[in-house]
Amino acid sequence: MDLLICEETLNEYIEMTSIGGDLEHKGVHNLLKDFAMLGYLFRSNHTITLMNEKVNSEDDEDYQKYLDLKASGMQPDNWEDMEHD
């Protein structure tokens, strides 16, 4: 998957979510800044590893199957509600 966003628009969103911005939100602000950094590092390959509770998508087969279901468009129960080891 590739993400394509105008740098000027991304910078505007970063500013809007900063402290004192119109849409101040620390979490969203930092996520947008991380997206910008990934764009600055365009020569590198990037991996996003999801975590849930004490498992992560690189190491846990059950969590990998759960994420595969989500990626295929199926709507499995929330991870927290599912039975898993």
Which assembly state applies to the chains in this document? single chain
What is the arithmetic mean of pLDDT? 90
In DSSP terms (H or I, runs of 4 or more residues), the helix count works out at 3
Overall radius of gyration:
17 Å
Could you give the order of strands across the largest sheet? 1-2
Structural account:
The protein has a two-stranded antiparallel ribbon. The radius of gyration is 17 Å and the shape is elongated. α1 runs antiparallel to α2. The protein has two domains: 7-40; 51-81, no CATH class. It contains three helices and two strands; from the N terminus they run ααββα. 6% of the residues are buried. It is 44% helix and 5% strand. It has 85 residues and is mainly alpha-helical.
Produce a short descriptive summary.
With 85 residues, this protein is mostly helical.
Layout of helices and strands, plus pairs?
Layout: H1 7-17, H2 26-40, E1 51-52, E2 55-56, H3 61-71
Helix pairs in contact: 1-2
Tags for this model:
2 domains; 85 residues; 5% strand; mainly alpha
